[in-house]
Amino acid sequence: MPVRPSEDPPYLGRDVMDRGCAVYAIVDGLAQLGLADKVAALLHWLGRFEGLEKHLEEELDPTLCVRQIVLQQAAETPLAARQAASSRDSSWRNIVAAILEQPFVHTCSDWSGPDLRPRVVWDPLAQPFLEFLAEGREGEDMATWMPEDGNPDRARRSSIQLLVQRQRPL
Fold first, then answer.
1. Contact between 101 and 87 (Cβ < 8 Å)
2. Looking at 6-10, 30-34, 52-56, 116-120, which range is the least confident one?
3. pLDDT score at 169
4. Using the 8-state DSSP alphabet, how is residue 18 labeled?
5. Considering all CA atoms of the chain, what is the largest pairwise distance in Å, rounded to the nearest integer?
6. Reduced to 3 states, what is the DSSP secondary structure of residue 118?
7. Contacts of 53 (CB under 8 A, 6+ apart)
8. Does the residue 2 lie in any domain?
9. In which domain, by residue range, is 68 found?
10. Which of 48, 81, 112, 150 could be a cystine partner for 87, CB 3.0 to 4.6 Å?
11. At what angle do helices 85-100 and 62-76 cross, to 10 degrees?
């Protein structure tokens, strides 16, 4: 069982590895790898899955999964190699490949009425999950599932979004 931080001062229940600190760990891990220029692209993409964690098992939480991948890559990359351009490119490709294997990337969700036909299907690359949630209507049910064969088209499109660096406003 993980050790829970004390609810008494000075921690007040907070820990550097809790979900609230995960984004900071991602930013710090990318900076350690010399990938600070990738932070905006990764967080913009990851933000499209915000809210999905409430519909998944805890170990599938998108933010926690990405944090683990980035920290693992930082731990496995020797300090001397972190500043080499080839090492940075390799680290980024490894991070993206590991992220795209995560179940949350392949998760599907839709809103459907009594006839069970989907009225709205969520596409995280076109719509953030929180916007999708707002589209539900009274009397509708939201279904969330993971296809047995994954979602290779979404993984491919995500790969393009993450690997092809474009300057775009957040």
1. no
2. 6-10
3. 45
4. S
5. 60
6. strand
7. 19, 60, 61, 62, 63, 64
8. no
9. 19-105+151-163
10. 81
11. 150
